[in-house]
Write a structure and sequence with these properties.
This protein is an alpha+beta fold. Helix content is 37%, strand content 23%. It has a domain at 24-219 and 242-278 and 336-399. It is built from 13 helices and 18 strands. The chain has a five-stranded mixed beta sheet. It has a five-stranded mixed barrel with strand order 14-15-16-18-17. β10 and β11 (235-241) form a beta hairpin. α1 runs antiparallel to α13 (390-423) and α7 crosses α8 (246-268).
Length: 489
């Protein structure tokens, strides 16, 4: 019998907290971290010699309910048809010194954990949603990454410096995207700031050029199939796919360019860095087999450009099933990881993004590697030695990879528990599904509506990633997030 709707959010919150602890993550801040946070002044002092860029038409674009705003963007004119893009990153290090109790908590978890019932922020909310958040109409210290984007999407000269910024408009993906595509009105916050509409269109043009060039170089065309939980009050209402849109792509394109510029800056400055790496897929043979089943041929060795051409064609001929194909490819590509890179050292790069130099730097309120990168940048700007030894950075990179994996498992567990709640009254029903995992540990499938993943416990023999099949729901376990299917005959 399903739980009463009013108790469902509380039940999922309890599962989230329990799973955090099981995975070695801290759901609560220590008394010392809370005391440090309470002692911070309401208006932080301006720190150091910084450029005054408060007059620029800065804006943030994020989810509708986001309060931890890590970055702002603005466009300037450039020479020979180029566009200068500035990305301002919240100066978190200025209020979270290394070795503080707040930093200890962030270093332990290494990331914010976003579950449907509760967010477990990496930093106390007074910081991440206020003092170190680039909120609208609030002057903030920032690290600015300035990049010249040519008309063909090539990233030219770039520089990094400290600045003082002011967010002129807090915008949301779901209202900006229809306006950019000419299918909706300008968001109210955009309309209130003279000139911001034209600036944002210039940003969009530069982002489109960046994206086109990356795909020419082999960046993969993939479509998110991640589902988000929808509540009606405290009652669980639905699981809906979280789809990409043009505004999300704009920010994604700028963040990739900024992260690439950051990695190259640190290398030029002779500083070590923590890079985000996605190695060549170990199951390329299965990707080749899937392509062959769909009437296409891929080379025997991993080739991102050939894979992207295949993906683009499949998106064109069968857009309805493209999210399923994307999911299969994502699973077969494997997971990214963090790695130490010494100055001048060869790095494997990021297979999915088709970039070699890539260091997470644009979300220091939410990810610890970005905060580490911020400290390395500041040391380089002041001509000081790295605040961390290579051995420390190597250990931190491995730890961040482990904790990121743990956080993803917590988020996935709570989504699966929510899915089990939704499906608990539908035992015996059959669903169209795609195989998302197949190994000695078991076989998993995802159904479309609702967008739910579960294990095939009977009839799974012979199924492999990317295959379409039909399954019957046989059991659910909300506490453990188990959803079990059998292959329907």
């Amino acid at each position: 019998m399903p739980d009463a709707p009013a108790s469902q959010r509380a039940q999922l919150r309890s599962i989230a907290r329990r799973t955090m602890i099981e995975r070695g993550l801290l759901p609560e801040f220590s008394a010392a971290a809370n005391a440090e946070t309470a002692a911070l002044p309401d208006t932080p002092a301006i720190r150091g010699d910084r450029r005054d860029l408060r007059d620029r038409l800065w804006c943030s674009i994020d989810n509708d309910d986001s309060r931890d705003l890590d970055q702002l963007t603005v466009a300037d004119g450039g020479a020979n048809g180029s566009t200068t893009i500035l990305v301002a990153i919240a100066d978190v290090d200025g209020l979270v010194p290394r070795g503080s109790a707040i930093d200890d908590h962030a270093r332990t978890n290494t990331t914010s954990v976003y579950t449907p019932a509760q967010i477990f922020p990496m930093l106390p909310e007074r910081l991440s949603t206020d003092l170190t958040s680039l909120n609208e109409s609030r002057e903030r210290d920032a690290i600015v990454i300035e990049m010249s984007i040519a008309a063909d999407g090539a990233v030219g000269e770039s520089s990094i410096y400290l600045a003082r910024v002011l967010n002129k408009a807090k915008l949301a993906y779901n209202s900006v995207a229809p306006w950019l595509e000419g299918q909706g009105p300008a968001p109210a916050a955009l309309a209130r700031v003279p000139g911001l509409d034209e600036n944002l269109k210039r940003q969009d043009g530069a982002a489109q050029a960046l994206r086109a060039r990356r795909h020419e170089q082999g960046a993969l065309t993939l479509e998110s199939v991640e589902a988000h939980v929808v509540f009606d009050g405290d009652a669980l209402a639905d699981l809906q796919p979280d789809e990409k849109n043009r505004a999300k792509q704009l920010i994604e394109d700028f963040m990739i360019a900024a992260n690439t510029s950051t990695a190259r800056f640190l290398d030029v400055q002779g500083s070590p860095s923590i890079r985000r790496v996605l190695r060549e897929p170990r199951r390329w043979d299965r990707i080749v087999a899937i392509a062959r089943e769909l009437g296409d041929d891929l080379p025997g060795a991993p080739d991102p450009r050939a894979l992207d051409e295949f993906l683009r064609e499949q998106h064109r001929v069968d857009p309805d099933r493209f999210p399923d194909l994307s999911l299969s490819v994502v699973k077969l590509l494997g997971s990214g990881e963090y790695a130490l890179v010494a100055p001048g050292e060869h790095v494997e790069g990021h297979f999915g993004l088709a970039v070699r130099d890539y260091a997470h730097s644009t979300a220091p309120n939410r990810r610890y590697p970005d905060l580490l990168t911020q400290r390395l940048i500041k040391a380089a700007l002041s001509k000081q030695r790295s605040p961390y030894s290579n051995d420390e950075l190597q250990a931190l990179a491995a730890h961040c990879t482990t904790q990121e994996d743990a956080a993803e498992k917590v988020e996935r567990q709570v989504r699966k528990s929510a899915a089990a709640l939704l499906l608990s009254g539908r035992l015996g029903q059959t669903f169209d599904a795609i195989v998302t995992g197949a190994s000695d540990k078991g076989t998993w499938v995802r159904i479309r509506r609702p967008a739910v993943e579960g294990r095939v416990v009977r009839g799974e023999r012979g199924l492999d990633v990317g295959e379409h099949t039909r399954v019957r729901l046989v059991s659910t376990d909300v506490e453990r997030g188990y959803i079990d299917f059998e292959k329907a005959t």
